[in-house]
Amino acid sequence: MTFKLEVLNLADAKQFKIDAQDAFQKGFEEYFGKSYSQILPESDIDNSLGSNGAIAYKAILDGTMVGGAIVVVDIERKHGSLDLLYVRSGEQGKSIGKRIWQELERRHPEIKVWETCTPYFDKRNIHFYVNVCKFHIVEFYHPRHPDPATPNDFIGDGGEGMFKFRKDLEII
């Protein structure tokens, strides 16, 4: 099996967005057991893609796009934000997410601190970030302690809150 992580090109951007939305939607609906409006709007993906320092990657396994990520890097601060990482629905459980993360770290050795967030309800993601990628939970956002960067109309956490994760490579 041949795995590659490549910078996302314009020709694949539409499919990247569709696959990311589908993966997030299915995870949300599996937990909550019912259908919801789009929990990852295209505008959220576009906002990440338009951030200063953003780089989008597509994961390719045997010639097929099976996932991707958007990172925002600040080389001066040696800080990286993992804005989005997804594995296409039906492809989970094959270590694709782990391979994406390992390749992101390899490609960005200048980054010493990585941060990301994931919903409280998503145990699979929490396991992935803590046990596989070695992030640490550093904050829990909820209605009484909101993330100042999260829009008021955000529904991706199902109202249950978000964990903020940090990986500090200088102390590992």
From TrEMBL:
<dbReference type="GO" id="GO:0016747">
    <property type="term" value="F:acyltransferase activity, transferring groups other than amino-acyl groups"/>
</dbReference>
<dbReference type="InterPro" id="IPR016181">
    <property type="entry name" value="Acyl_CoA_acyltransferase"/>
</dbReference>
<dbReference type="InterPro" id="IPR000182">
    <property type="entry name" value="GNAT_dom"/>
</dbReference>
<feature type="domain" description="N-acetyltransferase">
    <location>
        <begin position="3"/>
        <end position="170"/>
    </location>
</feature>
<protein>
    <submittedName>
        <fullName>N-acetyltransferase</fullName>
    </submittedName>
</protein>
<dbReference type="Pfam" id="PF00583">
    <property type="entry name" value="Acetyltransf_1"/>
</dbReference>
<keyword id="KW-0808">Transferase</keyword>
